[in-house]
Amino acid sequence: MTRRGLAAKAAGAALAAVLLAACAGAGAPADRTGGKAPEPARGGAGGLPPVVDHVPTRDRVVFLTYDDGAERDPGFPALVRDRRLPVTLFLTDTVAGPAYGHFARLRAVGASLQNHTLDHPALRGLPHLGQRAEICGQQRKLNARFGVRPRLFRPPYGRYDTATLRAAADCGITAVVLWRAAPDPSGALAFTHGEPRLRPGDIIAVDPDRPKGTALTGRTEKVLEEIERRGLRVGRLEDYL
């Protein structure tokens, strides 16, 4: 293979790693690649919620998000508290439910709890009523357990279709949140599209479900180093959407 071919192959592998980073999740299908990340919409249409991976803003902020709830690093609530990090957690009931006490502690120190479905299915292609049951069902679970009714939703694997957006709207969701950046296995940030560096308004997905290697606290600290190196800070996503 030529040098150019090897370089192209390596670049493709790096992009594939990014697209997987935000959504491992217990009980997920074995094939989690799903191809290219869906292109986020610029805004909602026809009453449907917008799909975003970046928030237009002049503020020098980026947003830290986490999915599923499988990894319960005991040091993570202290990091959120001590650094006053307004992180956003997209929770799946069948994954996070057995340890909702852990997420209550995170909420008490400033984390926001949002919707990531009841059972973590790949939604795209499912009937509208099935998608609605997954999204609305988790709305009810989080309301019953924490007294919150999320406005933000992240589809498992970043996969959605028009039925997903309609179901999300039915359930009171006002924005569907993807991500533009995520740490690769080395901890360095990689990007799904666009300029390969952090920009104000970027949404970062920190993979929470790696059973081996650096714990969630350490992975978050490495992302924070890059955020600070760029002269940025962590904002509260709900304040911008």
UniProtKB/TrEMBL annotation:
InterPro entries found in the cross-reference section: Glyco_hydro/deAcase_b/a-brl, NODB_dom, Polysacc_deacetylase_ArnD
Gene3D superfamilies given in the database record: Glycoside hydrolase/deacetylase
Keyword line: Signal
Residue ranges annotated for the NodB homology domain, each copy included: 60-235
PROSITE patterns linked to this entry: NODB (PS51677), PROKAR_LIPOPROTEIN (PS51257)
Signal peptide stretch: 1-21
CDD domains (UniProt xref): CE4_NodB_like_6s_7s
PANTHER family found in the cross-reference section: GLYCOSYL TRANSFERASE-RELATED, SECRETED PROTEIN
Name by which UniProt lists this protein: Peptidoglycan/xylan/chitin deacetylase (PgdA/CDA1 family)
Species in which this protein is naturally found: Streptomyces griseoviridis
